[in-house]
TrEMBL record:
Function, as annotated: Radical SAM enzyme that catalyzes the addition of the adenosyl radical to the double bond of 3-[(1-carboxyvinyl)oxy]benzoate, leading to aminodeoxyfutalosine (AFL), a key intermediate in the formation of menaquinone (MK, vitamin K2) from chorismate.
GO MF, any single term: 4 iron, 4 sulfur cluster binding
Domain of life: Bacteria
EC class name: transferase
Binding, S-adenosyl-L-methionine: 65, 171
Similarity comment: Belongs to the radical SAM superfamily. MqnE family.
Positions of [4Fe-4S] cluster binding: 59, 63, 66
Alphabetized PANTHER family for the sequence: AMINODEOXYFUTALOSINE SYNTHASE, FO SYNTHASE (COFH)
Species of origin: Halarcobacter bivalviorum
Protein name: Aminodeoxyfutalosine synthase
GO biological process: menaquinone biosynthetic process
Length: 353
């Protein structure tokens, strides 16, 4: 049976068939992914009003793709005080944010309580705000640093008020590529184990994939299929987020960058393969806004949010340092023919704009 027939019959594709999807005509692929997107979500495009906070950039790990952590290339180490963080949340809450997205570097100087206390303080002062915090890479770092099990860290996160986990730290699961781009940090299996434990504890998370660096198409498919397997087991992933590699100020020597066509094909393939992950997020920060809007017709049904301040990808060249104003966000979705639906962090609908 051909790949197209298998898709028509709603048969799942394995690695060999999935790779062939890249050989399809761009618009044929778009049409398949768009049909699935419309069946699942109609013309709704989800977004949230959120604030990203990156409390420290001091990191014990050296990921080759990272321009954010304090290093020779970015010699501006900082660690925010809890007062500074609370002030940010206070100001952002006036703008109507529903979520804080807190991701840090792996800072060995702060102490475990520094990480956990800030969640407690945010929850105490702003109980209505959803706290999405700590990637699996951070959880692994904290577990190692403080000689605790993943289960113990997860228990402490939940007790401190963390509601959901962001999808960062997944990068590319293929072990060889991973060793070259971020050797020494959480392994692929550990990343998956941590999300599994988080899901088993009754909470939801997202999953990312960093692509467009030294990986091949096959590595991307392998990454998605490992996520699909875990999702079959736990059902805990809300969204898959393909992050396009940004090339400035880091140590990776990448010669050829992705074309828009390759990015859109990857989004569409994600929508086709990840049948059990409800949402595909076109993260406008890394795909560019224009491509993210186009991605709505290639399977993506979520554009993340207004963000307000973005430090990780903008350090590597993305034009996202100041987020995007709400009205502009809504207008862009509307003008591209979709219905902007504000959501909370776990995809309950809040308002159709
Ligand atoms: O894992 C680092 C990526 C991620 C670069 O869960 C880079 O809703 C591109 O976790 N080019 C962290 N990407 C960001 C993250 C995230 C972002 C948005 C939404 C969600 C969510 C999670 O940032 C890291 C890494 O893959 N990153 N450097 C770079 N040069």
């Amino acid at each position: 049976m051909s790949v197209l027939e298998k898709i028509k019959n709603k048969q799942r594709l394995g690695l060999e068939d999935a790779i062939k999807l890249y050989d399809l005509d761009l618009f044929e692929l778009a049409s398949i992914a768009n049909d699935i997107r419309r069946e699942k979500h109609g013309d709704k495009t989800y977004f949230n009003i959120n604030r990203h906070i990156n409390p420290t950039n001091i990191c014990k790990d050296v990921c080759q793709f990272c321009a954010y952590s304090a290093s020779r290339k970015n010699p501006n180490p900082y660690t925010m005080s809890h007062e500074q963080i609370l002030e940010i949340v206070k100001n952002s809450s006036k703008n109507g944010i529903k979520e804080v997205h807190i991701v840090s570097a792996h800072n060995p100087d702060t102490g475990l309580e520094w990480y956990l206390d800030i969640f407690k303080k945010i929850k105490m002062e702003f109980p209505q705000i959803h706290v999405k915090a700590l990637t699996a890479a951070e959880i692994h770092f904290l577990a190692q640093e403080y000689k605790l099990s993943y289960e113990e860290i997860i228990k402490k996160m939940i007790e401190s008020g963390v509601d959901s986990m962001p999808g960062g730290g997944a990068e590319i699961f293929d072990e060889k590529v991973r060793k070259r781009i971020c050797g020494g940090k959480v392994t692929s299996q550990q990343w998956l184990d941590i999300h599994k434990l988080w899901h088993k504890a009754g909470h939801e998370s997202n999953a990312t994939m960093l692509f467009g660096h030294i990986e091949t198409r096959e590595h991307r498919i392998d990454h998605m299929l490992r996520l699909r397997d875990l999702q079959d087991e736990t059902g805990g992933f809300n969204a898959f987020i393909p992050l396009v590699y940004q090339k400035e100020n880091n140590y990776l020597k990448v010669k050829d960058f992705l074309t828009g066509q390759e990015i859109l094909k990857t989004m569409a393939i994600a929508r086709i393969l990840l049948d059990s992950i409800p949402h595909i997020k076109a993260y406008w920060v890394t795909s560019t806004v224009k491509l993210a809007l186009l991605a709505q017709e290639f399977g993506a049904n979520d554009l993340d949010g207004t963000i307000e301040k973005e430090s990780i990808q903008s350090a590597a060249g993305a034009k996202s340092a100041n987020g995007m104003p709400l009205q502009q966000f809504v207008d862009l979705i509307k003008n591209s023919g979709f219905t902007p639906v504000e959501r909370d962090s776990v995809y309950n609908e809040i308002k159709v704009w």
